[in-house]
Amino acid sequence: MRDGTLSTLSTRDRGLVWHPYAPLDGPDPYAVHSASGVTLELSASDGERFTATDAMASWWCAIHGYRHPDLDAAAHAQIDRFSHVMFGGLTHEPAVALAERLTAIAPGPMAHVFFADSGSVSVEVALKLALQFQAAVGRPERQRFLTVRGGYHGDTFAAMSVCDPVDGMHSAFPGVLARHVFAPRPPAARLVMTESGEEHWETDELALSAWTAELEALADRHQGELAAVVVEPVLQGAGGMHVYDPACLRVLREVADAYGLLLVVDEIATGFGRTGRLFASEWADTAPDIMCVGKALTSGYLTLAAVLATARVGEAITSSSYRALLHGPTFMANPLACAVANASLELVEAGWKDEVPRISRLLDEHLSPARELSRVRDVRTLGAVGVIQLDTPVDVARVTRAALRRGVWVRPFRDLVYTMPPYVCTDDDVRSIAAGIVGAVEEVHG
């Protein structure tokens, strides 16, 4: 189907608007006509129209789909009261209620919440918080962070500095980013179901042992300069959709405790049920000192993130010379975003335990045919995450178009074609997503 209006929109966009990680003269973006439930109505610049299931949940955030009546109602109700007030010297019900809800469901004894504008900003705040903590307890010389290769924590400067130094964005900004301490990427692992129905993690024990020894040696060598460990728990997202054994997170917790470091976990992509636990840290029965959440927090309605911290961290900041966490965004704790987040978390708590395992089983079953394709290196699932990894970089434009013609919107990157579908997808939706992805990969890469 052809639509001149929407193709004109793509033409007007070209060369005017920068899109993520894309040149101004790059491929034309698809224009969105409408979004409802899990369905996008799209148009290409040549006028071809597509009705597609959103396999990406809009970069992993729209877990309840589009135009959800409960979230729409929460937004309308808050607009009728007030959409924004400054948070300096003021407070409001949506923010306090959200902070109460987050501390109640978080792993471990989280006691304090700082609201930020976005995931990247929440990481910035978490890093500042760790540095302030170390200074407050008499260790101001501790100015560096220990992390692992393959990580991704956002695009702002401090967040970039703890992203992978090779595949991340360090090389584009030489001399500007702080230099931190990088351990090897944790060895890959796979979650499998035993015949008795129990979940079991499969990993290379020798590789795990070697990784642990190298991590411990690195921490020991740099102990006097490290403030915190920073890591995405169990699933590294934009760094390669890499799944690792929760035992690695336990090791990181032990190392942090042994050397007086804080453990900062970035749950921006993994939080709110995505990996099969409410928070991915729970796979390791491990509680962080500081936790960042975002993305699915408002189910994509508005940008909002949060930094949670333990009472120990809060007490150190309060007793320091500054007495405050030194950050304060203009739109901090935006009431409209907080109101929608509260409604979103009600939906999460009511349904994720049924929805995510259901999606996981379907993805595992219906992505498996991709293992027979000649260019496919690996197929893996974890919770409501399904990944097809090729042995070559993905032809993004052709795979995207091939999937759209099968009724699925995907956004591949590097050598990965993957899905993180909305939790409200029906069984048929998930089957269609998997079939569309497998079919697109087979058509383009064989």
From TrEMBL:
Q: What is its EC number?
A: 2.6.1.62
Q: Does the keyword Disulfide bond apply?
A: no
This entry carries the following GO cellular component terms, namely:
cytoplasm
**Cofactor(s) this protein cannot do without:** pyridoxal 5'-phosphate
N6-(pyridoxal phosphate)lysine: residues bearing it? K295
Protein residues bound to substrate: W59, Y152, K295, G328, R411
Q: Please list the GO biological process terms of this entry.
A: biotin biosynthetic process
Stored Pfam families:
Aminotran_3
Q: Where in the cell is it found?
A: Cytoplasm
Q: Which pathway, metabolic or otherwise, does it act in? A: Cofactor biosynthesis; biotin biosynthesis; 7,8-diaminononanoate from 8-amino-7-oxononanoate (SAM route): step 1/1
Q: Keywords in alphabetical order, please.
A: Aminotransferase, Biotin biosynthesis, Cytoplasm, Pyridoxal phosphate, S-adenosyl-L-methionine, Transferase
Q: Which family does it belong to?
A: Belongs to the class-III pyridoxal-phosphate-dependent aminotransferase family. BioA subfamily.
What role is this protein assigned?
Catalyzes the transfer of the alpha-amino group from S-adenosyl-L-methionine (SAM) to 7-keto-8-aminopelargonic acid (KAPA) to form 7,8-diaminopelargonic acid (DAPA). It is the only aminotransferase known to utilize SAM as an amino donor.
What is this protein's record name?
A: Adenosylmethionine-8-amino-7-oxononanoate aminotransferase
Species of the source: Humibacillus xanthopallidus
